[in-house]
Design goal:
By secondary structure, the chain is of the alpha/beta class. It has helices at residues 16-19, 52-57, 64-69, 80-86, 104-107, 122-128, 133-138, 219-223, 239-255, and strands at 3-15, 27-39, 42-46, 72-73, 96-98, 117-120, 154-156, 162-164, 174-177, 185-189, 198-204, 207-211, 259-261. Bound molecules: zinc ion.
Amino acid sequence: MAEITTFEIGYCTHIGCMALRGAGLRVCKFPARAYLLSIGERRWLWDTGYAQHFQQHTQSGIFRLYRHVTPVHFDPQASLLAQLRAAGYGAGDIQALIISHFHADHIAGLHDFDRLDFICSGEGWQQTRHLRGFAALRQAFVPGLIPADFESRLHFVEGFQQISLPAQLAPFERGYLLPGSEGQIMLVPLPGHAAGHIGAFVLTAAGWTLLAADAAWSPSNYQQMRGPSALANLIMKDVKAYYRSLQQLNQLWQGGGADILLCHKGDL
Ligand SMILES: [Zn+2]
């Protein structure tokens, strides 16, 4: 069975109602999480959280605005790489890094993993790779966070085998089988939040878990079908698709077929 180890790598702060309509003006903490997925001796990373490279690439120019909009708290001693080392993992222990989407708080640490393959949505990368300046900023994409040899190490989920998902994961029906995962990790599109935004169903000893990345920021988003503030729609790729994905999470949650983990679940 697969195991999921959760890491928190920095956090940002926002007023609550940005993430959940009606939550008020209280300033809330939104941790940035990454996960280590293990099946026997095979391991994959899911996102990176913040990293020093984020500070570096948002220090000047237009990307400084990013920091003003989302004040970031990050301890360089607690990067994902440092936390993995402290847990006893070396570079050779991990097969690949799966990118849920290209927002900076999910890819800030890519430069720290210079030997890993990367996995993402091909559609997402096609829509993101050319973005620069304000167009990039609007999609929370910081081009400097992408390693120079990124594309030569990249695998697209669309190239993986498509399979039917177990009935208990309804309304999700089809997924992409992560190669080498023995049917225990299936990647699924969760469109709307960002270009090519994906999630993953992971079969653990406790049952199925959906890594839902940023398809919601708070469980209340899908439990009460209460989205974020209209302001947050500005950075969303496709608001209608976001609410369709949220509806899918709502149905999955109601059916009880899987636990749902959110990258930024905080105290909301
Ligand atoms: Zn995001």
